[in-house]
């Protein structure tokens, strides 16, 4: 099984969520079996404009607890997803029209703000987090986009700002990869420990 040991090693770091990418155009496309991991970790399926039928079927097949939607999924689409947390992704660069969030307020559990780039996720660089000072919602959100060890100080500063009030989680990926889908456990552990010290 490709990367089974790596998945288990990441799980030992006890993240709240662990993502598996079910987008076949991604270099990180997951087509294996998820090994046994602690029930405290929510398994997340990452999708891009997939059919509702396939998303719901994948939820059952892999026993997912959440989905992360990186495409142009509508609020109606989000409401059709079966019995799991729905994380709807929005891409930001230097500005963002927060009005687009309103229709999704009752359709998903969390928002996720990622960096606008050529790819739907995994672009490897951060957007201007100051944009989130204008966040109009009380819905908790995930902060994503090129977050690595070099962002620790930036994260500390962000946590002191009003923009971070509803920041629920940090989503990390490409900055901790040895190759697509294979995570650097040592660097992830360092990141986790440095974040814990800064809390």
Structure description:
The chain has 199 residues and is of the alpha/beta class. It has a single domain, classed as Alpha-Beta Barrel (TIM Barrel), CATH 3.20.20.70. Helices cover 24% and strands 21% of the residues. The strands form 2 sheets. Strands 1-2-3-4-5-6-7 form a 7-stranded parallel sheet, covered by helices on one side. A two-stranded antiparallel ribbon has the order 8-9. Helix 2 links the parallel strand 2 and strand 3. 29% of the residues are buried. It is an enzyme of class 5 (isomerase). Keywords: Amino-acid biosynthesis, Aromatic amino acid biosynthesis, Isomerase, Tryptophan biosynthesis. InterPro entries: Aldolase_TIM, PRAI_dom, RibuloseP-bd_barrel, TrpF_fam. This is N-(5'-phosphoribosyl)anthranilate isomerase.
Short description:
This protein has 199 residues and is of the alpha/beta class.
> Largest sheet at a glance?
7 strands, parallel
| Secondary structure: number of strands | 9
What is the correct CATH architecture? Alpha-Beta Barrel
Q: β content, as a range?
A: 15-25%
Count, helices: 5
**How many individual domains?**
1
Q: What shape does the CA trace take?
A: globular
Kindly provide the name of the CATH class.
Answer: Alpha Beta
Average residue pLDDT: 93
Query: Widest sheet: strand order?
Result: 1-2-3-4-5-6-7
- CA(first)-CA(last) distance: 36 Å
Structural class: alpha/beta
CATH topology: TIM Barrel
Helix percentage: 10-25%
Regions with pLDDT < 50 over 5+ consecutive residues? none
The fourth-level CATH homologous superfamily is Aldolase class I
The SSE string, one letter per element, is HEEHEHEEEHEEEH
**How many whole angstroms does the radius of gyration measure?**
16 Å
């Amino acid at each position: 099984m490709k990367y089974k040991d790596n998945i288990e090693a990441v799980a030992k770091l006890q993240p709240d969520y662990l993502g598996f990418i079910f987008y076949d155009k991604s270099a990180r496309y997951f087509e294996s079996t998820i090994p046994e991991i602690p029930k405290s970790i929510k398994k997340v399926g990452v999708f891009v404009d997939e059919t509702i039928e396939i998303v719901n079927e994948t939820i059952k097949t892999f026993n997912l607890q959440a989905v992360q939607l990186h495409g142009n999924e509508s609020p109606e689409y989000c409401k059709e997803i079966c019995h799991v947390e729905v994380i709807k992704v929005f891409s930001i660069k230097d500005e963002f029209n927060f009005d687009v969030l309103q229709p999704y307020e009752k359709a998903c559990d969390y928002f996720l703000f990622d960096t606008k780039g050529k790819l739907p996720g995994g672009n490897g660089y951060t957007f201007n987090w100051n944009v989130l000072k204008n966040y109009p919602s009380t819905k908790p959100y995930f902060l994503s986009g090129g977050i690595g060890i070099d962002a620790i100080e930036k994260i500390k500063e962000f946590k002191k700002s009003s923009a971070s009030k509803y920041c629920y989680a940090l989503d990390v990926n490409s900055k901790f990869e040895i190759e697509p889908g294979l995570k650097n456990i040592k660097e992830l552990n360092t990141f986790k420990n440095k974040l814990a010290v800064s809390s």
